[in-house]
Amino acid sequence: MPAPSKAATWSCRLRERRRLTAGTFELRLTRPPGFSYQAGQRIALRTEATERDYTLVSAPADENLAVLVRLIPAGRVTPFLDQAPIGSELLFSGPNGYFCLRPDARPVVMVASGTGIAPFAAMVRAGARPFVLLHGVRTADELYYRAELQPAAKHYVPCLSAKALLPGGAFSGYVTAYLQTRLDPQPCDFYLSGRMEMIRDAMEIIDARFPDARVYTEAFF
Amino acid sequence: MKVYTGTGDRGKTSLFSGERIDKSNPRVEAYGDVDELNALIGAILNVLPEGRTTEAEQLEQVLIDLFHVGACLATTSDGQNAAAFTDLPAEKTTWLEKAIDRMDADLPRLTRFVLPMGHPAASACHLARCVCRRAERRVVRVCLETEAQGGDQPYHGIRGYLNRLSDYLFVMARYCNHITGTVERTWGG
Ligand SMILES: Cc1cc2nc3c(=O)[nH]c(=O)nc-3n(C[C@H](O)[C@H](O)[C@H](O)COP(=O)(O)OP(=O)(O)OC[C@H]3O[C@@H](n4cnc5c(N)ncnc54)[C@H](O)[C@@H]3O)c2cc1C
User: Fold this and answer.
1) Per-state percent for chain A, helix, strand, coil, to nearest 5
2) Is CATH 3.40.50.300 what the domain over A108-219 is classified as, yes or no?
3) Nearest CA in chain B to A51
4) Which of A42, A80, A195, B67 is the most buried (most CB within 10 A)?
């Protein structure tokens, strides 16, 4: 029986690996001719073993593709991505997903945990604004793309869970605590991306405090 | 990605267009029926008489179309999204009509009500047909509610498609009995 639909497979080359922290890196990939996507969409990178989803952080108009990867040392795919030689060929399918900014007049609130910032980086690079962005991480060095995101946002709120020295303007605690105590109830569009527990807890707060909100989610793990 | 998210444990769910709604909302009922219908279409594929590639390909297309229908029903017009899940084109209904006519040409004329029974594929088609009718009724309800709230009635294409799909499934049930030599029993006969 033929499969109902076949996702296109693309081939690209690894051009560059940029280390962002000890555990995260950005991969720059050549863009296969004819490949197009929308900011917020993801690709499924293949290895011999299996495939995994990675959200593109590059803007749709960029010359190259880029993904932000958190190394899971015991993982099946990220150690390979961490070590693959520059110039090696990578296969992927996509683009997939619908986690894209919808045209709407309502205020946009983006909420990310960790690498969940990836789709928002792409959206901002594609020109999205104004928006409020909450980025939940443990320590300030994990505030990926801060230098780009902060000036573009109406309000950029790093939410740091580790009890360490807080940089100026940072909130001490989880993004959910910020949603619960700091954000005024109003009809807005929420975009939640990253860890599933964050999405679930944020949704509970949104249901209780923002009954007229629209909510779009992208669960990474 | 995990199948469970836990975001629906308190009786709410998210529409594709972002709204958080109660799981008893007519839209959820409607796309739930379409989902049930789609699972039954998949079941028909499993029991379809050997070698019926044309019919199998049609049913696979229906599986895809119904996925699109589900996405449309989960999308309100005030929460439009990039992928534009608004309706099915009218050509989809015409396509079903052609498929119906092709099968009908081989079938004995219909003179009485046929009993919903026979070959396993025929039974599966009848089950799917009943769920299809229910899905259609629930879509009509969504349309009427949208109108009552001051909007235009949506889903012209989907309503036509579901109406024709239940005819298609009825004819497919008869066809499956016919090609397998299964006796078609009628009401009162
Ligand atoms: C829609 C979607 C988009 C995604 N986008 C990205 C992305 O842009 N960047 C990215 O790094 N990952 C992303 N992921 C996660 C990615 O697909 C892999 O699951 C992840 O890279 C681990 O793969 P692995 O084979 O190395 O680990 P596996 O062998 O699959 O082990 C996975 C374990 O690692 C943990 N884990 C998975 N992802 C993360 C993470 N990002 N941070 C911390 N812990 C994690 C989980 O607890 C999980 O149990 C996305 C997932 C989905 C479903």
Assistant:
1) 20, 35, 45
2) no
3) B1
4) A42
Collapsing DSSP to helix, strand or coil, B39 comes out as: helix
Q: Is residue B156 scored above 90 in pLDDT?
A: yes
Give the residue ranges of DSSP H helices in chain B.
26-47, 53-73, 91-104, 120-148, 156-179
Beta strand A108-113 with A51-55: parallel, antiparallel or unpaired? unpaired
Where do the structural domains in chain A lie, given as residue ranges? 9-96, 108-219
pTM confidence score: 0.90
Backbone φ, ψ for residue A55 (5° rounding): -80, 135
Residue that has been written with the tokens 């940072």 in this structure: A170
A183's tokens: 């954000």
| Residue with CA at minimum distance from ligand 1 atom 28 | A75
Q: Is A70 in the pocket of ligand 1 (CB under 6 A)?
A: yes
CB contact under 8 A, B18 and A189: yes
Q: Which residues of A12-50 are buried (b: 16+ CB within 10 A; e: fewer)?
A: bebeebeebeebbbbbbbbbeeebebbbbbbbbbbbeee
DSSP structure string for A47-90:
-SS-EEEEEB-S-TT-SSEEEEEE--TT-SSHHHHHHPPTT-EE
Tokens representing residue B174 in the block = 């008869």
Nearest CA to ligand 1 atom 1: A220
Burial environment of residue B107 by CB neighbours within 10 A (0 to 12, 13 to 18, 19 or more) = middle
> Is there a contact between B45 and A189 if contact means CB atoms under 8 Å apart?
no
Spatial separation of the C-alpha atoms in residues B143 and B9, rounded to whole Å: 28
pLDDT at A2: 35
CB B154 within 8 A of CB B90: no
Quote the minimal CA–CA distance from A180 to chain B in Å: 17
Query: A9-96 maps to which CATH number?
Result: 2.40.30.10
Domains of chain B, each with CATH number or no CATH: 23-182 (1.20.1200.10)
pLDDT in tens, A159-209: 999 877 777 779 999 999 999 999 999 999 999 999 999 999 999 999 999
Positions in chain A short of pLDDT 70 = 1-7
Q: Which residue has the tokens 């109003």?
A: A186
Write the pLDDT tens digit of every residue in B91-100: 999 999 999 9
User: Which whole-number Å values give the CA distances from B97 to B74, B92, B100, B158, B168, in the listed order?
Assistant: 26, 9, 5, 14, 8
